Amino acid sequence: MDLNLSDEQKLLRDSAERFVAGSYDAAHRRRMANDPLGFSPAVWKQFAELGWLALPLPEEFDGLGGGAVEIGILMEAFGRGLVSEPYVATVVLGAALIARCGTHEQKQSSLPKVADGSLKLAFAHSERAARFDLAMVATSATKTAQGWRLSGSKIAVLDGHAADEIIVSALMHDHHGPSGRIGLFVMPATVPGVAISDYARLGGGRACNIELSDAHLPEDALLGDGHDALPAIEWAVDRAMAALGAEAVGIMQTLLDTTLDYTKIRKQFGRPLSANQVIRHRLADMAMQVDEARSMALRAALKVDAAPTERARAASGAKAKIGRCARFVGEQSIQLHGGMGVTEELEVGAYFKRLVAFDTLFGGSAHHYARHAELGRRA
Amino acid sequence: MDLSFNAEERAFQDEVRGFIASNLTEEMKRATALTPSVFSDPDIGVAWQRALHRQGWGAPGWPVEYGGPAWTPAQRWIFETECARAGVPNVNVMGVKMVGPVIIGFGSPEQKNFYLPRILSGEDYWCQGYSEPGSGSDLSSLKTRAVRDGDDYIINGTKIWTTHAHHANRMFALVRTGDGPRQQDGISFILIDMKTPGITTRPILTIGGDHEVNQVFFDDVRVPVANRVGEEGKGWTYGKYLLEFERGSGIASAKLREGLRALADLAESDLTGRAIDSPDIATRISEVEVDIDALEMTELRVLSALQTGQNPGAVSSILKLRNSEIRQAVTRLGVDVIGHDALAVEPMRPLYRLNHEPAIPEEMLTMVPEYLNGRAYTIFGGTSEIQRDIIAKMMLGI
Fold it and tell me: What range(s) does the Acyl-CoA oxidase/dehydrogenase middle domain occupy (chain B) (predicted)?
């Protein structure tokens, strides 16, 4: 039992915090918000040079073999600067799915390119009718003589506009009809029959909706051997929720620090706001919730390789709890900044919006408390 | 980073389990489960303290030279967790965890030789004389006065919320021996024999129907000056040291988890008409479970820091507050889980020695009293409002 950071982990934390503090400021974030790409390719290249893109990938495919704790350290630092690079889409979701499901050839052709920054990925899974149910997939993949034919609609695909290859989940059909198995297909973004409409994402970065109309893919586009991919999807999303939870902790910590500073400086009725007990207690509650969120993000990270039910309960518990803390800390940060907190002139709103996006992604607190309860049923 | 225990720690875990299996009687277990107040009655609690003492585990936090077992923080965690899982009696902490560390830290050699062994063995049963009717959260405004008369102090005044004063043979108290520029000045830390003439104890019944706390009156009570711990007028320093123990020694999540498990068992049983089938109840159980998970991780983070000799810092001030709030959430949920049966009042105590058939199943008897008495969790040992003041000051620097 040891929850102290190792020396290597401390180095990673320090270098990530330094990088984010040096490269991300309000002006950069404003530029990115109006940028059609939503992030900086130059920064992405630096991520590759720093080894962050290789961090969790297996060593035999040019990765560094890091775990969820290291990802969490990086993500918390990203949160502090509202980093908008497609890290979760490419590394935490995309590359992880290839590493888990892919054949040796598929891993060999993709993962080293992720590590060197030349391949960006996205994961297209959510569908409007499914809401947050990961098992519900209507997009179809029909076996053809040459390979596969995909049709359907995907929504809220993180950073899909920037991806070179998109991993699409689809219900596999053979000549008997639907097989009941979900397959994962690696689809180049340029395939005919694919229409991508992207939009600016709440809180920074971009997302897209994807229409698939008879998009033809070769046989080997299917990741792995065609086993049902649902367990892998749940695994990857649980990992992503742990990573996003750590990012939310970084965002909350920045909001707490900023709000604390503001209440010390801002004077009303002849004294600083922080001299009022009602304000001090509010800040104490915010600090406590940031700390609880930090505990839950760490817990989820430490359990990503546990048995599926334990892992999923840790991930859902963390997502639910951190989501609730995030809303509280975010809303109170605005409240304590007064009218200025509601304006675009301060960055409080930008951080708050990223927290709202976090709470929504992969299902909000209510959904995850319910999932946690369902998975906890004993009989 | 690693959540699992190493081979040595797992061996220790087995040792603790073995000890509990051979010392925890069914009677103790049932009595503990059916005690809706904070501490077990002495017949149960002292029996368990004696068993611990025989094993050399009577005072886990004490230095070895005074009889502590020299456990690592991880071992303490394992011990507390296994005890909570097994449902061992809640030993009154006033001796081992409160006055013991003060005597070790500031007592004279004579005081150490006399009192410490008697705490370990359970021979002495302590109560705490801190709060007064006029001094709650503003503790240092206390007025109970000790006036020097030769080799004695003569004490007059009153103490309140004195847990188990009706069982205790000794009290440690903060009394005013002088006045200084600050109200914290002139307070002394005194050990009092409860059989001394002039002491009377009045029971206070809490809203759950339990007699756990009292008011104690002092009328010209003569206490030897030799019973003062440390210097005259420095009692506030010692008292604060002790309050740190009361707040910070937290390994509480295991007990909370056990309480929630008992409640979830009830919710899944036909006794409650399977309350768990209501989505509201199921979700609320998950909400509380997740809060316990978060508290447990914070405890483990503090423990990891201690393990490597680091100062865990202000994060430990969060532990008391969250523990008390989550305990209340568990008891609130308990009332909702038992549904209609929450209407039944059982006035007899102890609940494990009723001489009649209770109106509701035994497993439910503690739910309402625990909820009602549990309102005190966010009041004693520094109210939640005081805790938030501490967090603002220590953690946020405002």
Answer: 127-221
